[in-house]
Design a protein that fits this description.
alpha+beta; 25 helices; binds ligand C2E; binds magnesium ion
């Protein structure tokens, strides 16, 4: 999965997680809110129902009292003949049969009489001596209305009482006012602590201005000095005005307040008499009984669940994010250097190319990195890679990126397309790496080489890189037309190699191997030439490296071994003594499991002595696994083959290899004969002399390659070298020409 997709997925997950969390939060909050709202509604309804119940009881009692007073007043209306004494007597009689605290009769002239159950009758009790509230009620009755006074403290009993007053008519004229005072039993209940709402709420009675007329002793708000609901915590300052207005217009009213950290509700129910109100107060927690704690538990449980699930979601999401980050890191970054890897690099290139900006791809490699690894150890090698990575990283500019591919190969995408500035930047990298700590410590010069493809691709950069792999004079190569041709040629040979093998286009050429002692023929080396359908002849240098990299070389080598066998057979059949033939063997071939058996099958098929065949291997094989290689050589010896080491001295030849490898022949690379190598100094001569002597002592015969002059031959002879190969004697020639020239066979008839 690429980074973009992963990021998209993560964003989607984030949104989902957030939505789920919000949904959970809303759902939980909604449920808790709904439950609390229901509880509040229920409590309010309950308070209203109960307050109205009390109200109806109070009104009923007031109504009953009025009815009784009206009956008495009617009775008085028809007794105009009664004397004052009779009236007093009548009052006494009547009062004795009802529950009124006192009864009184007042006349329009302000005179009156009073009868109290406890203190008896006062026949002369003027209206002026009664409580002002009573006077007000009596005056209303004398004007023809039924009246109820405000509450007042009885001068006689000290109880809180109120007064009824009804007119007494005689001959349709108001003759007086009949009064009765009473204390409502229901108020007693309230005062005595009786409660509403299952014992949790309290009812008070208020006057029209909010003053307590009757206040429950067990009020939630405990301040006994409080005289009005506007004094205490009931009503917030900014609500007082609206509550007063509501009370003036006799409206019912719900509200809430907090007291001792608890939410409380109150309800004001108008009584419809004198502006009185019933004031019902309740704690929300108490009102609901077991429901409130249950709700709290449910709410808390939901909150915990929500927190937990949110935490889990968040944690899961975090883990996923971290894991995917780690995965992305593993997928996109090289664990050794921390640089991006090839996968990421190609993705970035895919993103970059559509922008159609100029760019160059650079391939960077460390020279002889394998050797550095072997010489200084893998740890040092790893450190060097990290160092190179840092140097490259520091060179990157905005919009540029790079990766480490395999081993010591780095690819860069830079925005430069000018050869001069590219070369400058790369030289800078090469120079800085050259100063690596490793080189300073070990006095070993680390060098890089780079291949550049301007507006090209990685393959082209790599080809440019490979073109200077073996040339030490240049560190930077650009992919150009020549390389392009080479690449095209490579593609062409790769597409033709199979058919070429079938069509016999690979030809056996032979180069004589001469004894240095007497210049006599000692053998020949088989060298392949590719003659295509057009007759063009290609040298191994053109195609062998390609075949080595694509694996075809192993097949070609066996084909050449067969050609050698066929040649030997032809000589044997012709009755001439064959000369030993050498044949080059690639590294790949040596690793094939059926290599030995295939060789055996060939010599058996052509019935040629294996001793006539020398297998030339490259010294690089020894570096891989000496033990395995010796085992293979032993098997080959058992079959009778001879083994030669080719191009000794061209790479990192080690004398150790000579000691340890059980070879029969050593071929000294033609590089030894270069003028600069032997002409001036004696160092090279000393080395060569020692190699030859060492080989002699180990019974390994020596062949020098590339002998072009008589001088070369004499020099090598003087060193004790056994054989020579080179243009001095002959270039590689076709097998037919060799037959004629060296085997003294007649020239084959022309077709
Ligand atoms: P090599 O096995 O070291 O072969 C010797 C090379 O040196 C040959 O090049 C030969 O032509 C060249 N040579 C010989 N005498 C002189 C001389 O006096 N001066 C100079 N300058 N060169 C001389 P050639 O034929 O082009 O082959 C090149 C390489 O290709 C061979 O090097 C060998 O490694 C490889 N090769 C050739 N044929 C085969 C083959 O059938 N199989 C494999 N695997 N490799 C082959
Ligand atoms: Mg060779
Ligand atoms: Mg050679």
């Amino acid at each position: 999965m690429d980074e973009k997709k992963t990021r998209k997925l993560l964003t989607r997950l984030t949104v989902i997680v957030a939505l789920i969390s919000i949904a959970l939060f809303l759902f939980t909050g909604g449920i808790v809110y709904y439950l609390f709202a229901s509880l509040r509604t229920y409590t309010r309804e309950q308070m209203q129902v109960e307050a109205r119940e009390y109200k109806s009881r109070i009104l009923k009692q007031i109504d009953n009292d009025f009815q009784l007073l009206h009956s008495l007043s009617t009775f008085l209306s028809f007794s105009d003949s009664l004397s004052r004494q009779d009236l007093v007597e009548g009052l006494y009689q009547t009062n004795a049969t009802n529950n009124f605290v006192s009864m009184a009769l007042f006349f329009p002239d302000g005179s009156g009489m009073i009868e109290t159950l406890e203190y008896g009758t006062s026949p002369d009790y003027p209206l002026a001596s009664s409580h002002p509230y009573v006077q007000e009620a009596v005056n209303r009755a004398l004007s023809g209305q039924d009246a109820v006074s405000l509450m007042f403290e009885s001068q006689i009993s000290g109880d809180l009482v109120y007064n009824y007053a009804v007119p007494v008519l005689q001959n349709d004229q108001i003759a007086g006012a009949l009064c009765a005072s009473d204390h409502l039993e229901i108020f007693e209940e309230i005062l005595g602590g009786n409660t509403v709402l299952n014992g949790n709420g309290y009812i008070h009675m208020l006057s029209d201005n909010g003053k307590f007329l009757v206040r429950s002793k067990h009020s939630i708000v405990s301040d006994p000095d409080m005289t009005s609901i506007f004094d205490g915590p009931y009503i917030a300052e900014d609500q007082k005005q609206s509550v007063r207005a509501a009370m003036q217009s006799q409206q019912g009213l719900f509200s809430t307040f907090r007291y001792e950290d608890k939410e409380c509700l109150f309800y004001l129910e108008p009584m419809g008499i004198n502006g009185w109100y019933l004031f019902c107060v309740n704690r929300l927690a108490d009102a609901s009984g077991a429901l409130y704690p249950l709700l709290l538990v449910v709410g808390a449980a939901f909150a915990i669940m929500l927190t937990l699930s949110s935490f889990l979601l968040f944690y899961g999401y975090k883990t996923l994010r971290r894991n995917s980050k780690q995965l992305l890191h593993v997928a996109y970054f090289d664990s050794l250097t921390g640089a991006e890897n090839m996968l990421r690099f190609t993705q970035r290139i895919d993103e970059f190319l559509p922008r159609r900006l100029p760019y160059s791809i650079v391939a960077v490699n460390i020279r002889r990195f394998k050797f550095i690894n072997e010489l200084f150890g893998q740890e040092q090698g790893d450190q060097l890679l990290c160092y190179v990575m840092q140097i490259i990283k520091a060179q990157m500019r905005e919009g540029e990126f790079f990766c480490r591919d395999a081993a010591d190969l780095f690819y860069l995408l830079i925005r430069d397309i000018q050869e001069v500035s590219i070369r400058q930047r790369l030289d800078d990298i090469v120079h800085k790496v050259g100063q690596a700590a490793l080189s300073r410590q070990n006095h070993y010069e680390i060098s890089l080489y780079c291949g550049v493809a301007i507006n090209g691709n990685m393959m082209q950069a790599l080809l440019a890189l490979q073109s200077i792999k073996h040339t030490y004079h240049s560190d930077v190569a650009f992919y150009d037309e020549k390389l392009h041709q080479k690449e095209r040629f490579k593609n062409r040979i790769e597409s033709h190699m199979q058919s070429a093998l079938q069509n016999g286009e690979f030809r056996l050429f032979l180069q004589p191997k001469m004894r240095l002692s007497d210049d006599g023929l000692a053998g020949a080396e088989a060298l392949v030439r590719w003659q295509d359908a057009s007759g063009t002849l290609f040298s191994p240098g053109d195609f062998i490296p390609v075949f080595e990299s694509n694996g075809f070389c192993a097949r070609l080598d066996m084909y050449m071994v067969e050609a050698v066998c066929r040649q030997l057979r032809a000589w044997l059949d012709a009755g001439i003594t064959p000369v030993p033939l050498s044949v080059n063997q690639s590294k790949l071939l040596f690793y094939e499991s059926d290599y030995i058996s295939n060789l055996q099958a060939l010599v058996e098929r052509y019935r040629v002595p294996a001793g006539l065949i020398t297998l030339e291997i490259l010294e690089g094989l020894a570096a891989d696994n000496m033990v395995d290689l010796n085992a293979k050589i032993r098997q080959l010896h058992e079959l009778g083959f001879r083994v030669s080491m080719d191009d000794f001295g061209s790479g990192y030849s080690s004398l150790n290899t000579l000691y340890q490898l059980n070879i029969d022949e050593l071929k000294l690379d033609q590089g030894f004969l270069l003028k600069s190598a032997y002409g001036a100094g004696t160092r090279r001569r000393v080395i060569l002399e020692h190699i030859v002597q060492l080989a002699q002592r180990l019974s390994i015969s020596t062949v020098v390659e590339g002998v072009e002059t008589r001088e070369n031959a004499d020099w090598m002879r003087s060193l004790g070298c056994d054989y020579a190969q080179g243009y001095l004697y002959s270039k590689p020639i076709s097998a037919a020409a060799f037959d004629v020239q060296y085997m003294h066979l007649p020239c084959p008839a022309l077709p």
